[in-house]
């Protein structure tokens, strides 16, 4: 196992993590921004007002993007486990 192969595996793992997490993080960011603008405009400062829409948005994102995320992760794990004998020996 060479240092280059270790770096390639690590880089691929980080790319996959960012790719799979980005839909949920982006939706949470947009919903949080919209709720913050709404709270600033109406001067309503309730903690649950910012928490509940984010949870609903995250659940909707998992419902819509969940199959894609699962497919990406299983394909990645299949590639890693298939290439493992070649990397070790």
From TrEMBL:
Coiled-coil residue spans: none
Presence of keyword Cell membrane: yes
Transmembrane portions of the chain: 50-70
Entry's localization field: Cell membrane; Bacterial flagellum basal body
One Pfam family this sequence matches: Bac_export_3
Alphabetic keyword roster: Bacterial flagellum, Cell membrane, Cell projection, Cilium, Flagellum, Membrane, Transmembrane, Transmembrane helix
Membrane association type: Multi-pass membrane protein
Function (record text): Role in flagellar biosynthesis.
Protein family according to the UniProt entry: Belongs to the FliQ/MopD/SpaQ family.
Name the UniProt record assigns to this protein: Flagellar biosynthetic protein FliQ
Biological source species: Thiobacillus sedimenti
């Amino acid at each position: 196992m060479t240092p280059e192969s270790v770096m390639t595996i690590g880089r691929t793992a980080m790319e996959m993590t960012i790719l799979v997490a980005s839909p949920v993080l982006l939706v949470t960011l947009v919903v949080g921004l919209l709720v913050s603008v709404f709270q600033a405009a109406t001067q309503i400062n309730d903690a649950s007002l910012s928490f509940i829409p984010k949870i609903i948005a995250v659940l909707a994102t998992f419902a819509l993007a969940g199959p894609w995320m699962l497919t990406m992760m299983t394909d990645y794990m299949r590639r890693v486990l298939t290439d493992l004998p070649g990397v070790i020996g």
